[in-house]
Amino acid sequence: MTLDKKIILRLKVLYVEDDESIRNELTLVLLKFFGKVYAAKDGEDGLLVYKKHKNNIDLIISDINMPKLTGIEMLKEIRKIDKNLPILFTTAYSDTQFYSEAIKLKVYEYLIKPIDIRNLIEVTSTLAQTLYNDFLLKQKRNELQKYTDIILNNNIVIKTDNHMKITYVNELFCTTTHYNNDELLNKTFDSLFHYDVDPKIFQKIHSSVLANKTWNGIIKNKTNFNTNYVAECTIISLLNDAGDIIGSICVQKDITKKMNQQRDVKISLMKDKGNILIKSKKGEIVTRQKINKLENEIKELQKSFKLEVSKNNADIYNYEKTILENQQLKRDIIKYKKDYLSLTKDKSSFMKLSKENSDYRMKNKKLLLSLNKIDEQHLKESKQTSVNYEIKIDDLEKELTKIKSSFDNLDNAEALMDKLKYWKEKAQDEAKKIQNLEKQVLKHADANVLGKLFGQITKY
User: Fold this and answer.
1) Residue 15 belongs to a domain with what CATH number?
2) Helices 410-444 and 347-406 meet at what angle, rounded to 10?
């Protein structure tokens, strides 16, 4: 047998033995296994210790044959207080005359002296497990009682027999329905139903109870004041120890307030729906008027659009023509791009030509500057020469006049005429040179130089 030390440690033991040496020796052993050990020297002392610690003693181990009070006499007094407390008697073979009386006093077990410790521990271990199971069962019963109290205090509870006749109603039922506690006893469960409830529901409930099945549903019940309440119901079968169905228990939760709230919400929704429908009809008329107005505006816009389209046909043609021209321009641009790309392939030659052209332009510019300087110089010289010749001609004419007036001699006149002729020819030759020089200037000089030269010449 497996020993559960924790369960044995739960036990508090009263050990009664008149032999001091045996008592002291066994007490030390018992302390190793049990949670608490009380020792007494005889039956009288054992009874006193028990009365003092009766609420804290789970087991009594006692000798039978003791002075003052025997074990049997002590047990008789204890049974007046506790009829179920387990007792182990330690006996000698000579104490068999006490067996019959001890059995009447519900002695749990007998241990023959000298005590076998293993046998004692096995017996107490079994007893400890039994006591522990009783403790758990008691605890579960207490919990079940608490749950039952909660249900009874917060729900309507009705019990019936297997014919569905009412055998019990709780206080909350009486408060809710205003019936007296005994007023509905022996009446069938459907006597609580409101007139609106279908009778078939009672048949279904009774069939579920007889089949040991749970029934859940909502039932409308009547009260003693001809009012009603709505309840969520759970009905289960009640069984006896043999497993036979002996009745049912019905737990109801009053949901009348909740149902009324739902009904009010539905009514409110229906009213709102009706108001919305009325408003929607009025709105539909206004909307239809607006739609008609918009349709007329659309027709007018369509007419204007057609006129605008016909008016803009020419613009559309020009637009299309422009698109074609743009497409042609795009093709030309693509072609020019290709030509440009082909030119860029010969970039080195192009750069070289550009450099040579630049050099030629520089040389040409320098030559033009030199030519301008030469032209200016020639113009100045020709101008000066022309002025000098004019002065000489004037002087010769004056001299000729003077000679004519001074000399009447023909020979002198001829000589002077020849001289005048010579200087005229000379002047003509110089004039031709000047004309040739002017032609060269006109041929090579630019507009700015010519402007400057002719501007100077016209002054004279």
Assistant:
1) 3.40.50.2300
2) 170
CA distance 191 to 247: 17
Helix (H), strand (E) counts: the chain? 13, 10
209 within 8 A of 228, measured Cβ to Cβ: no
Distance CA 49, CA 223 (A): 60
Backbone phi and psi for residue 233, each to the nearest 5 degrees, phi listed first? -115, 140
274: tokens are 């009706």
262 exposure class (CB count in 10 Å sphere: 0-12, 13-18, 19+)? exposed
Give the model confidence (pLDDT) of 70-93 as tens digits. 888 999 999 899 888 899 888 775
Is residue 350 within 8 Å of residue 358, measured between CB atoms? Answer: no
Which residue type is seen at 285? I
Per DSSP bridges, beta strands 36-40 and 245-254 are unpaired
Edge-first strand listing for the sheet containing 228-239: 166-169, 156-161, 245-254, 228-239, 215-222
The number of CA neighbours under 13 Å toward the Cβ of 277 is 6
pLDDT at 388 over 90: no
Token pair listed for 44: 């009288």
38 inside domain: yes
pTM for this structure? 0.42
Let me know whether 122 and 171 are in one domain: no
Q: Which structural domain, as residue segments, surrounds residue 427? A: 353-457
Count of domains for the chain: 3
Each residue's pLDDT tens digit, 307-341: 655 555 555 556 566 667 667 766 766 776 676 56
Q: Running DSSP on this structure, what letter comes out for residue 226?
A: S
Q: Exposed/middle/buried for 228, CB within 10 Å: 0-12, 13-18, 19+?
A: middle
- What is the per-residue pLDDT across 4-47, written as a single tens digit (0 to 9) for each? 678 888 889 999 999 999 999 999 989 888 889 999 999 999 99
The answer on pLDDT for 400 being more than 60 is: yes
